[in-house]
Amino acid sequence: MTSPQQAATALESLHVPVNVAAATTGRTPTGTLRTRVVGATAIASAALVVIDNTVVGSAGSPTYGATVKEVLAFHADHPVAVTIAVGLEALNVPLLLLFLTGLHGLVRRRGGAGADWSRLAVAAGATLAAVMAFYAVLWDGVVLSAVELTEPSPVLELAWRMHAAAFAWSLPALGTTFIGATLATHASGLTPPWQRLLGVTGGGLLIAAGTANLAIADGSALLYVGVSGLAAWLVWLTATGVRLVRAHNS
Predict the structure, then answer these.
(1) CA neighbor of 49 nearest in space, from 81, 79, 91
(2) Residue 67, C-beta contacts closer than 8 angstroms, at least 6 positions apart
(3) Cα–Cα distance for residue pair 244/35, rounded to 1 Å
């Protein structure tokens, strides 16, 4: 025969707080949707970077080592391509920040392992967004100057060199973002080990290239060290996005 005290204890044992139940039964539908949204923003951000570079690359964009005459000719003849490119870069700013803040939230909900790294990624991502805004504004200035010029001018050359320098300065910000996000997702179990190797290597290349920002602004081929890191970032971002989008209730 059950005593009143035993019956009360049994009833209490049937009451499990909602947060404990959710933690012990896996992801909730809302949590899964949130995870998929974060993954979708990662894929969208990577896609915009690829489209952006394809648009200007197919139009024959000059390298940072090109002569000012080549720079003037390209921007005078292809203002639409640059307009599309800077528009895509503007759209990529909120997507990147949404991904990083969402990623930080996912890391915290998985126990907080790697939360310090995800905070670093958010801070570095905000810095990257600010530098890229400066980069895009200077590119706008190059286009607007080129439309009204028939011959190169010192102002056009200065705007182009500063545009190149802003891109070079964006490399260490992206590298720090890359490493922070990589170590955060690895510590929380969101990504497999191979992505940690890719992230640390790619992020290191970006930071290393950024230290040569003056040389890159002057047209140095060291730029391609950073481009290699950027390619690694796009692979990592896409792989992470696909992994998060495929999340399920288990």
Answers:
(1) 91
(2) none
(3) 6
Closest CA to 167 of 227, 97, 228, 81: 227
Q: Is residue 32 part of a domain?
A: yes
The pLDDT, as a whole number, for residue 31 is 73
Residue 221 falls within a domain, yes or no? yes
String of DSSP letters for 162-225: HHHHHHHHHHHHHHHHHHHHHHHHHHTTSS-HHHHHHHHHHHHHHHHHHTTHHHHHTT-TTHHH
Reported as a single tens digit per residue, the pLDDT across 175-188 is 999 999 999 999 99
Question: Does some domain include residue 9?
Answer: no
Residue type, 108: R
pLDDT tens digits for 28-87?
A: 667 788 899 999 999 999 999 999 999 999 999 999 989 999 999 999 999 999 999 999
Which pLDDT score, from 0 to 100, does residue 118 have? 96
**Tokens coding 245:** 């989008």
CA distance 237 to 47: 10
| Rounded (10°) angle between helices 29-58 and 223-245 | 150
Give how far the C-alpha of residue 95 lies from the chain's centroid of Cα atoms, to the nearest Å: 8
Overall domain count for the chain = 1
Q: Specify the length of the chain in residues.
A: 250
Please give the residue range of the domain that contains residue 210: 26-245
Which of 214, 218, 225 is closest to 66 using CA atoms? 218
Is residue 21 one of the residues assigned to a domain?
Answer: no
Task: Say what the pTM is.
Answer: 0.85
Residue 24 has pLDDT above 80, yes or no: no
What is the three-class DSSP state of 37? helix
